[in-house]
Design goal:
It is a single chain. Helices cover 48% and strands 13% of the residues. The protein has helices at residues 11-28, 37-40, 58-69, 89-102, 122-134, 152-158, 165-178, 203-211, 215-223, 227-233, 239-255, and strands spanning 2-8, 41-44, 53-54, 79-80, 83-84, 108-116, 142-148. It contains eleven helices and seven strands. Helix 6 (152-158) crosses helix 9.
């Protein structure tokens, strides 16, 4: 079966990124029904029978596969064809080199590289450098980049729509305190602090206030909110760009499976 490898920072990132992609597949492919997805492809990690892999585990995964599959990573020189690799560029190239190896025995057609920018735009630049190194190699491999500015919670906030009067009031109170709507403009939430007075500008704090810390309420933000609403709100957080990449690079693979 066709596989799409997912590289993320956490399982929550994987759930968000893959569900959004599933929704886009069904929305954009006329003949496709949600129940058909499981028969067309699967979301995978670098190791067989996993659903995703995490950035922090890449070196250990490579070491394990060197022992179990005889993978020999190419010598790392610290630079690509466009010069010195920026943050995450080296790690992304390691991932792509490994994927090229396991493509010999698995039908991997694409890799999703999902990353929080955390106020480090050079992370995306480095991942883009890695993509440029691999994009024209054979066998064909689509490389999708999703970078959340500043973090996954910013994407979730983009999809938050109050479901009752209590939530509407909480959102209004936060908006008044910030002087901007944290859902429409979540990219403005730049703080890491959990302490006053800056904690209200931490995306994690704002999301917890709005959802009551309930994961099922968070999930509604990317599972139920209209895609066009997400696209409109996500221009500055990287969400819209990620949705565009799914449409441009993954949908043609699924669409050709009819």
């Amino acid at each position: 079966m066709i596989e799409f490898v997912v590289i993320v920072e956490s399982s929550a990132d994987a759930r968000t990124a893959t569900k959004l992609a599933d929704r886009l597949f069904v929305d954009k492919i006329d003949w496709l029904e949600p129940g058909q997805l499981q028969y067309l492809f699967r979301w995978s990690g670098l190791q067989e029978n996993t659903e995703h892999s995490c950035w922090q585990d890449i070196n250990q995964i490579i070491e394990n596969l060197q022992q179990s599959l005889g993978f020999r990573p190419p010598r790392y020189l610290g630079h690509g064809k466009d010069g010195a690799l920026k943050a995450d560029g080296a790690a992304a190239i390691k991932i792509l080199n490994l994927v090229r190896f396991i493509q010999k025995t698995r039908q991997i057609k694409a890799v999703l590289l999902i990353r929080d920018l955390d106020n480090q735009p050079q992370r995306r630049e480095g991942i883009e450098q890695a993509r440029s190194e691999h994009i024209n190699r054979q066998p064909k491999l689509e490389i999708i980049i999703g970078t959340a500015d500043r973090m996954r919670e910013s994407w979730v906030l983009n999809g938050f729509v109050p479901s009752n009067q209590e939530e509407a009031q909480i959102l209004q109170d936060i908006t008044t305190q910030l002087t901007f709507n944290p859902c429409n403009e979540s990219h403005k939430l730049r703080s890491n602090s959990w302490k006053e007075p800056d904690r209200i500008r931490n995306p994690k704090v704002v999301l917890e206030k709005l959802t009551g810390g309930k994961m099922e309420r968070e999930q509604q933000c990317w599972e139920d909110t209209p895609l066009e609403y997400l696209r409109k709100n996500g221009v500055h957080t990287g969400l819209t760009a990620y949705m565009d990449e799914i449409e441009e690079r993954l949908i043609p693979i699924i669409g050709s499976a009819e």
